[in-house]
């Protein structure tokens, strides 16, 4: 076995920062799969990525020539030869496909009959020939949503590919991928046109660092950035609130990171904190520095992509850019504050919410009505709720939000607080968009929760009314996210809202002609239930439990959640299997009856001791759980079903259900029906058999 080191580096124009990690990982996984397909073995694969390169280093790859055994079953003997014994067209085509003469084929017998069979050994192509093809396939298998075309071949990738290195130890593997010929010259830093010659694959990635401080290893580069920003912040007795998303993005933007400290004017600290942090982090991709009191320093740390001999010039340039952005924010703030937040309300009449759904002003009016209705269930101050809804969209027409759209809600909160609005009202304005992504935190106030539900429900209803319904491939208005957000708030905040009532109330606020509310309602409720199944599966609940509860057509998420939790708990109890088997047996017996079993148990028809015990146990169970059912405490109810286990077992063991006396038989069936009704009030247990 001959073991070597294989280096592959794909030099590109700057790759999208937010996708760099996933692109690199996909390339690694795809190449791994292709090598396995050709039974090429190796010790391990190391992968690297910078904004301008994707690289893989395969350690101890086996380059020995291989022999492959091919086994191919052909047509049956009946179909392979005609009545004269001559090969049919089907047999000849199969032989040609296998690369053999029909006379070279053997036969194989199976239970289904006798078949033509081809068994031969061939030499696999040399690895030097296979590698370009493998790399090409691995790159093209990366899923690309937004791609670019840049040459005559019309092939697509995230960004144009400019250079390809394929080096097996010291040997350059010749090939052409994406119309680029392979070589042994690595792409250099963006500031340097001269390429870096690499003579041996083992030199990678150290040679990049030695020549131009390029850190090809993503994890090392990220760690380097964190260490640098922490050291700088500590020097001025501050600290960094590490935002992993920001660090990941910056790591994907640079390949020779150097952290530098910049300063901005102290008067910019008067800008509300969240707005200031947004400009520094999201707009400028820099790190704000905090003191022990959680206050901001008039400083920021930025990551340069070059280790300059004149860092002061770079610092001065970044300070000028930061000053311009913060000056804009300060100007917008000053301009916006000439009037109160509520004075922007009439301006919403000029802003379209969505075609055929009116303006943002129309949406605001609907939100006020909807949140007033929701407030009955969320136990909040109705006037405060209406006020929050009234002000909720006003910041959308401010200069600040027009310049920094991501600050919608946050700007409204600051402006309303400045206008002496109630704290809960102001906080709700910010929280109306939460949760905005998977795993995002929920609104902290009940007014915020109510406004978030109203806002999301209004959008969802409107979009369904005009036919903007998500498909399996597209959801341009993020309606799935809105539905999950509504469900999470209702369930986690324990709000007794019924989706049926919520949807119908929301639909009633839209005055759209030719829309059948019943049809739209059915589409929306089905959409919610599908999202609910997805959410529970994501949280590792058993699909059988989910289906058992949802099969009852429940529409109150809080009740659904309690049942799913209770049944999931019940399944892990020692006696649950026995109870479930008993329910199954009872259900099968009752299904066989042609007539519907109804009525009350006749005490005078009870004869056997086991019958009496079961009847008494059921009666006591009903008494003990009546209040629990009213309070929907399903976990406690299922715990009490333990008392039914033994009486049900003894009943089946000792009592003959199909008695010769028809009245006694019916009476015993009614007794079983009483047991079944206990459990059907909780869920459809047939899914759990």
UniProtKB/TrEMBL annotation:
A Gene Ontology biological process term: arginyl-tRNA aminoacylation
Keyword Transferase: no
Subcellular location, record wording: Cytoplasm
Domain DALR anticodon binding span(s) in chain numbering: 581-681
Residues passing through the membrane, by range: none
Record HAMAP family: Gly_tRNA_synth_beta
Family statement drawn from the similarity comment of this UniProt entry: Belongs to the class-II aminoacyl-tRNA synthetase family.
Stated name of the protein: Glycine--tRNA ligase beta subunit
Species name: Buchnera aphidicola str. USDA (Myzus persicae)
């Amino acid at each position: 076995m001959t073991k070597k080191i294989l280096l592959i580096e794909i030099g590109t124009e700057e790759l999208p920062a937010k996708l760099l990690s996933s692109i690199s990982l996909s390339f690694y996984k795809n190449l791994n799969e292709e090598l396995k397909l050709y039974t090429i073995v190796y010790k391990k694969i190391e992968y690297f990525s910078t904004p301008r390169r994707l690289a893989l280093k395969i350690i101890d790859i086996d380059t020995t020539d291989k022999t492959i055994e091919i086994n191919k079953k052909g047509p049956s003997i009946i179909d392979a030869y005609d009545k004269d014994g001559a090969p049919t067209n089907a047999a000849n085509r199969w032989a040609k496909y296998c690369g053999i003469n029909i006379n070279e084929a053997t036969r194989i017998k199976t239970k289904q009959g006798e078949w033509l069979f081809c068994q031969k050994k061939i030499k696999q192509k040399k690895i030097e020939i296979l590698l370009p093809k493998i790399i090409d396939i691995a790159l093209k298998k990366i899923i690309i949503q937004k791609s670019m075309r840049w040459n005559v071949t019309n092939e697509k990738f995230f960004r144009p590919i400019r250079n390809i290195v394929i080096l097996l130890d010291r040997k350059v593997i010749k090939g052409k991928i994406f119309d680029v010929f392979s070589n042994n010259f690595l792409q250099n830093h963006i500031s340097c046109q001269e390429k870096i010659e690499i003579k041996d694959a083992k030199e990678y990635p150290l040679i990049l660092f030695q020549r131009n401080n390029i850190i090809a290893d993503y994890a090392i580069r990220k760690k380097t950035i964190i260490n640098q920003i922490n050291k700088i912040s500590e020097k001025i007795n501050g600290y960094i609130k590490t935002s992993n998303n920001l660090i990941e993005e910056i790591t994907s933007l640079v390949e020779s990171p150097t952290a530098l400290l910049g300063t901005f004017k102290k008067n910019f600290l008067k800008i509300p904190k969240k707005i200031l942090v947004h400009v520094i982090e999201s707009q400028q991709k820099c790190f704000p520095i905090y003191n022990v009191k959680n206050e901001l320093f008039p400083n920021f740390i930025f990551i340069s992509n070059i280790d300059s001999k004149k860092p002061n010039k770079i610092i001065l340039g970044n300070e000028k850019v930061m000053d311009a952005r913060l000056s804009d924010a300060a100007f917008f703030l000053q301009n916006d504050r000439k009037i109160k937040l509520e004075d922007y309300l009439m301006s919403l009449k000029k802003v379209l919410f969505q075609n055929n759904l009116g303006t943002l002003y129309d949406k605001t009016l609907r939100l006020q009505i909807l949140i007033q209705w929701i407030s009955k269930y969320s136990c909040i101050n109705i006037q405060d709720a209406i006020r929050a809804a009234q002000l909720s969209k006003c910041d959308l027409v401010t200069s600040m939000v027009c310049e920094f759209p991501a600050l919608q809600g946050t700007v409204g909160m600051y402006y309303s607080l400045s206008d002496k609005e109630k704290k809960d009202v102001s906080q709700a304005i910010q929280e109306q968009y939460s949760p905005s992504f998977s795993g995002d935190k929920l609104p902290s106030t009940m007014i915020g929760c109510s406004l978030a539900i109203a806002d999301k429900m209004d959008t969802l209803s409107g979009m369904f009314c005009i036919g903007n319904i998500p498909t399996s491939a597209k959801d341009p208005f993020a309606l799935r996210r809105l539905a999950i957000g509504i469900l999470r708030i209702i369930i986690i905040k324990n709000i007794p809202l019924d989706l049926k009532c919520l949807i119908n109330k929301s639909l009633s606020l839209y005055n759209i002609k030719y829309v059948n509310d019943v049809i739209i309602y059915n589409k929306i409720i089905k959409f919610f239930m599908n999202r609910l199944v997805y959410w529970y599966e994501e949280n590792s609940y058993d699909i059988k439990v989910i289906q058992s509860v949802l099969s009852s057509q429940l529409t109150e998420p809080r009740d659904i959640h309690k049942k799913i939790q209770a049944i999931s708990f019940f399944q892990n109890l020692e006696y649950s299997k026995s109870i479930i088997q008993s329910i199954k047996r009872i259900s099968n017996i009752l299904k066989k009856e042609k007539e519907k079993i109804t009525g009350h148990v006749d005490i005078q028809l009870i004869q056997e001791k086991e019958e009496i015990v079961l009847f008494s146990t059921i009666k006591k169970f009903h008494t003990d759980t009546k209040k629990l059912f009213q309070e929907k405490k399903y976990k406690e109810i299922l715990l009490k079903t333990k008392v039914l286990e033994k009486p049900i077992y003894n009943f089946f063991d000792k009592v003959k259900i199909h008695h010769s006396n028809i009245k006694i038989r019916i009476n015993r069936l009614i007794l079983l029906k009483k047991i079944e009704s206990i459990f059907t009030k909780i869920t459809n247990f047939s899914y759990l058999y």
